[in-house]
Amino acid sequence: MASMTASNPDKPRITVEAPVLRVGAGTADYQGLDRFVDSLRKPRGLHMTLLHVGILDELVGDIAAWTKGRAEPGKVLPEVTSWLTELPVLQGFLGKSDKLVPLGGGRLMGLEVDVPQDVHDYQALLVQGLHVLLDELGLDNIDDFILGSPALGYRSPRWLPHIAVGRARSRHEPPMEISPVAIEFGDSRIRHREALPADS
User: Fold this and answer.
1) CATH no. of 14-193
2) What are the residue boundaries of the structural domains of the chain, listed by start?
3) How far, in Å, CA of 28 to CA of 6, rounded?
4) For residue 115, which of 119, 130, 149, 197 is within the disulfide window of CB 3.0 to 4.6 Å?
């Protein structure tokens, strides 16, 4: 298999996400989670990732490596950027959570979120669209690429709706039941959209 990129922490990661507008009845409901996690994240930055695209230069490098250079970076980058900016917007929605679960190999804790079916459908549409884009760029074995690309960062083909909220107290924290909370999400958006190359 072709060698693919290692991550550069200094460059922004591009994701499609739904921002969290409110957890529970307000700040106190969210702050109460600090009983279960360390370094509780600020409410303003909370979001649900719908699709992780990663650092664009690294994704382009992964595609070039996979195609053995047939997909030229100079042509791939505008295609990926155009695809991202033309994605439909998912309207804001309500979810709920009654469980904290370990994430990222146990380094983080997050709220596992129950979301409406149309959110699952939208996320599946994003992956399907990514599949079509990669096919048009000349990739083969696209499922293997999606799971193997360090830039995309997939660990599993199954999407678990969640919100990362803070550091786990240990690497072996089990899932924890919490009092149910409603979660309000805003319209989907591209995180770090300003980092996308300008249209030529």
Assistant:
1) 3.90.1140
2) 14-193
3) 40
4) 119
